[in-house]
Q: What sequence folds into this?
């Protein structure tokens, strides 16, 4: 059975630059296959698709959405035409309904960069069916943990559930720093608190991180980039056995940590 995974997708430029996080993601697909077998499909909950209620896409082939501006031209030439999974989308909708969560299906939307940027590194052949799930940024961590819990049966069906966001995401402080700028102490303090809470299985503390973790509001002025963590956490096992897969930082304030939940 595949774990559920939280990934930090970082800057849209990540597929085109060399950094510890891009090197980690480039090896992730082989690592997952070696340990758990190749996924039959991948479901990504991305920070970049925000809706009022859960929506899952169901298309034959995914469009590559370049949902950003002002980046170098080669980035806009990248494509990730992974097949969709319409029947699996129906299964996702049924699971959410059974958990008391109203949802709908979008039959035209493709993959935003929160989905395709990490996938183009990890599974560059784009031959595994991919579908995407929206987040509801106004509803907070507990709601997204419930989403993940509803989707937990998919792991027994060969589906890899991924939450794609960012471990820290205070873009207000981005002023053209170099990618290898050392991270600031507040970024480290927040990240260390979150890591310890995960390793110790302190689920309640994680759900209320905004009132407990140091510098939480500074690292996440808005919550959409951390909420995919809770989808992955909820989809993991009830005992919350977690494994940190990667830890690094870019631009001094974007932590790129990744976790698997078994």
A:
């Amino acid at each position: 059975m595949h774990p559920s995974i939280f990934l930090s997708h970082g800057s849209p430029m990540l597929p085109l630059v060399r950094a510890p996080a891009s090197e980690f993601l480039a090896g992730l697909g082989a690592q997952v296959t070696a340990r758990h077998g190749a996924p039959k499909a991948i479901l990504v909950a991305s920070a970049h698709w925000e809706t009022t209620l859960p929506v899952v896409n169901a298309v034959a082939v995914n469009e590559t959405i370049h949902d950003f501006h002002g980046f170098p031209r080669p980035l806009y030439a990248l494509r990730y035409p992974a097949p969709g999974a319409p029947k699996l989308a129906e299964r996702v909708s049924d699971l959410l309904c059974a958990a008391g969560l109203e949802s709908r299906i979008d039959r035209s939307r493709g993959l935003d960069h929160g989905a395709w940027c990490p996938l183009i590194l990890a599974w560059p052949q784009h031959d595994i069916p991919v579908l995407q799930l929206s987040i509801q940024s106004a509803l907070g961590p507990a709601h997204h943990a419930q989403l993940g819990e509803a989707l937990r049966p998919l792991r027994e069906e060969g589906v890899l559930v991924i939450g794609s966001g960012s471990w820290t995401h205070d873009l207000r402080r981005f002023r053209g720093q170099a990618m290898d700028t050392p991270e600031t102490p507040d970024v480290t303090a927040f990240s260390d608190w979150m890591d310890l809470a995960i390793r110790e299985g302190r689920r309640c503390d994680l759900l209320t991180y905004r009132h407990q973790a140091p510098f939480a509001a500074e690292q996440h002025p808005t919550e959409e980039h951390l909420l995919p963590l809770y989808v992955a956490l909820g989809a993991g096992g009830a005992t919350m056995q977690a494994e940190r897969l990667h830890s690094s930082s870019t631009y001094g304030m974007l932590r790129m940590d990744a976790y698997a939940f078994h």
Summary: Strands lie at 4-8, 41-50, 55-57, 104-106, 130-135, 159-165, 242-246, 249-250, 254-255, 258-261.
